[in-house]
Each structure stands twice: as structure tokens, then as C-alpha cells.
Design a protein that fits this description.
Homeodomain-like_sf; transcription; transcription cis-regulatory region binding; globular; 0% strand; 2 domains; transcription regulation; DNA-binding transcription factor activity; Arc Repressor Mutant, subunit A; mainly alpha
Length: 197
């Protein structure tokens, strides 16, 4: 019995592949994001994905771009709403840590670096740079670039080693996120809440 495949436009096919790649990244890590696995997930052939992406490293680069666009939009929204008093500034930290942890951006970045595919990080870095420039416009009195630097590095480190390092130091899981929230609130002149032991 043969299955009938729905005819997708090239853009729809790329979008489906990127969403499948994101799901594989979250479920099984960056090593699982292969052309063959993504093709199987969306009912396409390896050759079809090769046509759209060229190689596994190009698929990973596109996945990085796809994730960074989603992530920077969500973080940018949280920053704007926090500035307007419509959201708790802690949401900025939570969205950043979630992006690198639960959404898999940290594992993907590490995988790209360790596999020698550093150029694939350029779209991610450009998206962050564009967001920071946008958020910094009109707020030159605030250390937007410096805040972004420490927050991204903290979230990246936490996604890769945070839980293990906290356990090794006898600290509760999520302590790095708590510290990042405190640091952000302090940089905004707001009081941090006491932490549970």
C-alpha cells in the first residue's frame, strides 16, 4: 500500500523540515538532526532535503537561523513589555534560558562549534546583534550590549553544564537562572527576591 504525499511548495517544504529538525533537536540532541532523520520525519526523501539545504551543515545553519528568529522575537517582546511595565523583567531571563536549554539552542551552538561549523553560528549572532541594536535605540543610558553578553553566556553555559555544576556545588537546579534574574534586576535598580535554600 503506497502513501500519497501532499504536494508542498518549496517554502512549505523548508518550513516543515525546519520544524521537524527543531523537534529532533529537542528530543534527541543536535547529533540527531541529519538530513535522513528530518526527511523521514516529514515523509520526504534524503534527496529532496539535499535539494533544499545542500548538506547537513547547511540544514543546521538554517535551523540556527530559524531558532534565532523565533527566540529573538520572543525575547524582544519580553523586553519591550517589561519596559512598558506590562511584564515582569524576570521573563527576559526565563525566555533566554529556555531558548538555550529547553528549545535546544545551546546544544545546537555547541555542536556547531565542536564540529567545526562555526560559520553556521553567524545567523544566530547576527539575529542577536540586530535585536540588541533595536532594543538599545533610544536607551543609550542602559547597558543593553553588556547585559545581553552576560545573559547569553550564562544561559548557554547553564544549558550545557548548569544542572551538573549546581549539583556538584550542592546548589539546587536552576540556581544559575535565579542568579541571572537577580543580576538583571540589580542592573535595573530593582530588588531581588530571597532564594530558597
Amino acid at each position: 500500500m503506497s502513501t500519497v504525499r501532499a504536494r508542498l511548495s518549496p517554502q512549505e517544504s523548508r518550513s516543515a523540515a525546519l520544524e521537524a529538525a527543531r523537534a529532533l533537536l529537542i528530543e534527541a540532541g543536535p547529533q540527531a538532526v541529519t538530513l535522513k532523520a528530518v526527511a523521514a520525519r516529514i515523509g520526504r526523501t534524503h534527496a529532496n532535503l539535499l535539494h533544499h539545504f545542500g548538506s547537513a551543515s547547511e540544514l543546521q545553519a538554517e535551523l540556527g537561523r530559524y531558532l534565532s528568529e523565533r527566540i529573538t522575537a520572543a525575547i524582544g517582546d519580553a523586553v519591550v513589555r517589561a519596559r512598558q511595565g506590562e511584564a515582569d523583567p524576570r521573563e527576559i531571563v526565563d525566555r533566554t534560558f529556555d531558548a538555550f536549554g529547553r528549545e535546544g539552542a545551546g546544544a545546537l551552538a555547541a555542536w556547531m562549534i565542536l564540529s567545526g561549523n562555526r560559520d553556521a553560528l553567524n545567523p544566530v549572532l547576527e539575529a542577536i546583534h540586530d535585536l540588541v541594536d533595536h532594543l538599545g535605540a533610544g536607551h543609550e543610558d542602559r547597558p543593553v550590549h553588556e547585559t545581553t553578553l552576560w545573559l547569553v553566556l550564562a544561559a548557554l553555559g547553564d544549558s550545557l553544564l548548569g544542572e551538573s555544576m549546581a549539583a556538584a556545588l550542592g546548589l539546587p537546579p536552576g540556581r544559575a537562572r535565579d542568579l541571572a534574574r537577580d543580576h538583571l534586576l540589580a542592573s535595573m535598580g530593582l530588588a531581588a527576591e530571597p532564594h530558597r535554600a
